[in-house]
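Subject: for your reference before the review

Hello V.,

The reviewers asked for a structural picture of the protein, and I figured it would be easier to keep everything in one thread rather than splitting it across files. Below is the amino acid sequence we used in the manuscript, unchanged from the supplementary table.
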Amino acid sequence: MTSTAVSTAPSHPPQAYWEARAQRFAVEGEGLAAVCSYGMPAFYNRVVDLSQRLALAPWLRVRPGTSVLDVGCGVGRWCRELARRGARVTGVDFSPTMIAEARRRAAARGVLARCRFLVQDLAHLDAGEKFDLVLGVTVLQHILEPQALRAAVRRLADHLSEAGRLVLLEAAPERSIGSCDSPIFQARPRSDYLRLFAECGLTLRAIRGVDPAPFKIWLWPHLPRLAPPVRTAALILATALSVPIDVLFGRRAVGRSWHAVFILEHAREHAPEHAGG
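And here is what came back from the structure prediction:
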């Protein structure tokens, strides 16, 4: 699933939108245009990918044999990484083209034997087992209907083993920034997610930042009005200014971060570990 969409409104339902997007971008390069920021240059999506990898790295250190569920897996970039480390990975996406490409790329990397892929809607997820690790990267932010969102989080909790860990990376600023929302994306306030997780029987173990640099957020609402050469130049400048801040301070500057990594478990009698920004 995408990290942030600055594209125009889709003219068809979300599932059709993602399938059309997959057909256009999933086979292109590393497939990042299909799963990161739609319509953005390759350099921009590589930086998005780098920020996500740095933020997720501590939580993806799996032992061989660990069972992993990757929801909204897209072209399977996290599936391949975890399978390479010896995990048994189930990747789920509701785009058949995404799943076909994820399977093809896993085979090309020699890890298909440790992967299985399913075409399913997260709100009705049934992977047939519980998992040690459930991973979702920029998925919930694209489920705009409140009941579907709640159903999706409940399905994630239902697929988590008793001692398992749920790791979610979502656009979740401290305060709502509606100017960056679109018909296929919503940056919900962080408190909304925390409330929903608690209502679904999940407790927060930790929260980490991803991208505290504000330059891209300032720029996004203005991009559609810029001429293509100006847009590219502005993106290069905003990205160049953001990289050192995000790389050096992303995980610690939680309060200022646009995206957040939520580390969740089934509710138990212990206090969660919070990180300040």
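For the response letter, the relevant points are probably these. Residues 14-200 form a domain with the Rossmann fold fold (CATH 3.40.50.150). The first helix runs from residue 14 to 25.

Happy to draft the paragraph if you're swamped.

O.
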